[in-house]
Structure formats: C-alpha cells, structure tokens
Design brief:
The protein has 219 residues and is an alpha/beta fold. The chain contains seven helices and twelve strands. 26% of the residues lie in helices and 25% in strands.
C-alpha cells in the first residue's frame, strides 16, 4: 500500500541534540515527497509558531499538529482547536494558585502567556511567542493548553497534592516535553469527547481525513 502522508515528531526525532537538522538534505527529500504526492506533517508538543521557524520555506504549505494536538492547522488554515472556556481557564488558575513552585504557561492561539514574576529561560526553545503578564486572569485569547513546569523530581508530589477535582480537568495527555519540566493538557470534564482529539496521533488523523487520505505513516 502506497504511503500518502508522513508525520514526524521534532524533539529527539527529527531534530538533533542541538535542536537542528540537515536543511539541505531535508530539502532534497521534501522535493521527492512532493513529486510522489506524499504529504508532510509536523507533529509536536511545541507551539505552532515555534515549529514554523524550523521550516521557513515551506511553512505555508505544511500541516502542523502543534501543542500535543491541541491546535491543528494545514497551510495556515485551522483544522482543530481545543478551546477552553474562560471560566474553565479561571478555575484551573484557582487550583494552581496553591502551587507557587511551578511555572504556569497558558497556551493560546495568538501567544503563550507566563506570569511576569516567572523566568522564561527554560521555555525559550518551545515558545516563539511568549508574553509576560501581571495578571493571567486577564487574557483575551483562545486558550487550549496549560503547561506546568517544575523540577522532574517534584512531579509526583505535585500530582498527589492537587485537589480531587483535578481528575475532572486533567486529560490523559501528560508528558515531560523538556528536561526537568512537566507539560499537562487540561480540559473541562464536560468536553471529554473533544479533549480526546488532543493528541498527536489524532491530530495527524484529522489531517489525513481532511486530505481524504486512506493511509498514513507516522514516525
């Protein structure tokens, strides 16, 4: 069966340890993919704007499954966005306010947002657009992801300390995207059906369905 689509992860897969790749080699391979009618998809937990920086020449003709599948786009056209209602965003902030030792990043369509008192040093490689705000409750944007960043050895203790209501907000998509960090996708329980789409595999499947492709190869 012929391959119709190739989806690649970035960190630790497509990129080397220096977060780079052989641009000339990829350009040759990409030209061959286009000749054979094989579509190319970038799937990652990183911000879409960050992913686009790696592919300046082809970003306008490429599909991106960004933010762990919370935002999916094709040729700059949005395919899926796991939007959180503002009251849900505020509820999550209320829960996290009792955890002062974590850096909370609110991920939205226009930018990611970090409290002005937090350091953004660790996040530089993941958010091309990152704004610092004095008040995280006062954000006018479509929010679809929260990223909680803390020392790796403190992750289990944090999950144990969070209130029982946490289970109603947390999706199964929990991962450590960078060293000594934790990234968690949060969605209200009432939208679990929508939230289930927020993973890279389902994001790539949404792209394949949009393109009316029968098969896809994911690496």
């Amino acid at each position: 069966m012929a391959v119709k689509m190739i989806a690649v992860d970035m960190d630790g897969t497509f990129l080397d340890d220096n977060k780079q790749y052989n641009v000339q080699r990829f350009s040759r391979k990409y030209a061959l993919l286009k000749q054979k009618g094989i579509r190319f998809v970038v799937a990652s937990g990183n911000q879409c704007y960050q992913l686009q920086r790696y592919f300046p020449e082809i970003k306008d003709e490429t599909a991106f499954v960004a933010e762990n599948g919370a935002w999916v786009s094709d040729c700059n056209e949005e395919i899926f966005c796991g939007e959180l209602a503002k009251e849900k965003v505020h509820k999550i902030l209320d829960i996290l306010a009792h955890e002062p030792d974590i850096a909370v990043v609110i991920c939205g369509r226009n930018s990611a947002y970090l409290h002005s008192s937090a350091s953004d040093e660790v996040l530089a490689n993941h958010y091309h657009r990152l704004e610092k705000r004095d008040d995280l409750y006062d954000i006018e944007d479509t929010i679809f992801k929260f990223s909680l960043n803390l020392a790796h050895e403190n992750v289990d203790a944090l999950l144990q300390r969070l209130p029982n209501s946490w289970a109603n907000w947390r999706t199964s998509c929990i991962r450590s995207p960078v060293a000594l960090a934790l990234s968690i996708l949060l969605f209200p329980a009432a939208t679990r059906r929508t939230a289930s789409r927020c993973c890279r595999k389902n994001g790539a499947s949404a792209i394949a369905k949009c393109w009316r492709l029968v098969t896809a190869l994911t690496t």
